[in-house]
Amino acid sequence: MRRTRAGEPSELDLMATACLVPSLLYVLVMFVYPFLYGIYMSLRPAKVAGFSLANYLTFFGDEWQYRTVWITFNIAVPNTVVVVSVALLLAYGMRRGIWLERTVTTILVLPISLGVILLAEGIIGFYGARGWFNQLLLGLGLLNEPLVLTHNYIGVMLSLFMQQFPFCFLMLLGYISGIDPSIENSARTLGAGPWTVFYKVMLPLMAPGIAIAFALVFVMSFGVFPSAILLGQPAGATRTIAIAAYQQAFESYDMSYASAIAVIMGVFQMAGLVIIVLLRRRMVMAATMGVGKR
């Protein structure tokens, strides 16, 4: 095999470039171009000649529209905190393996195989006014009236949790399992208790994985659409910004205004990601990825 000269690209570099080019083209065609075209459309209002910020001014000047931002945050932030917290606790407890680990993991990630529609139907059938859950509580005499758990804020939160928990759990379990166990063992040998080990040693090491999980769950939650319609109140308490964009695009047929709402949605998502990254940087971190389970 011929030795590569200094400054001459190696076969590995050429292979990496060949693999990278299709990915870049896909990102440009499927993400960058639609995003830029959406910004262009948002600046071309239907009844205004040339470029204008009229769509953005209309959105923030209409309380019925701009309040969808706060409704969406009110759904996305609590759901993200709950999903990541529960997934973190379970993944941390299973980081070195447990009895029937594969069975437990399979049960926890089973909702991945269910579509949003099927999941929504299942939630209505179980938690609805005539669902099994309410019928059981009524039959035991614990309730006089069924609990209202669907077609409201709670129903949307249940759906989002079931959709996003499996992804978050698998991500955190893989990340936490990759931290070298000798670090934790060394802390225990030096007299650190379970809480000290978690807070002072493991949490800083888990911070990058937690930040990634938090960011992904937040972005998915902020873009909630089918759950807010099927299990919420799309004309009231769960009218999210995605629903507002849909209504302008396919009910009012104003693609320019819908594009502006979509851009606003993307800006708030980016702002949330920036906050997550800044919070992660405040945590003490160290590069200690190791051999995983033992």
Q: What would the average pLDDT be, to the nearest integer?
A: 86
SSE string, helix = H, strand = E? HHHHHHHHHHHH
The major pleated sheet works out as: none
Q: Structural class of the secondary elements?
A: mainly alpha
Multimerization state = single chain
SS strand fraction: under 5%
CATH homologous superfamily placement of the largest domain? MetI-like
What is the highest CATH level, the class of the largest domain?
A: Mainly Alpha
* Beginning-to-end CA distance, first to last residue: 40 Å
Q: What CATH architecture of the largest domain would you give?
A: Orthogonal Bundle
Radius of gyration: 24 Å
Low-confidence stretches: 285-294
Short description:
With 294 residues, the chain is an all-alpha fold.
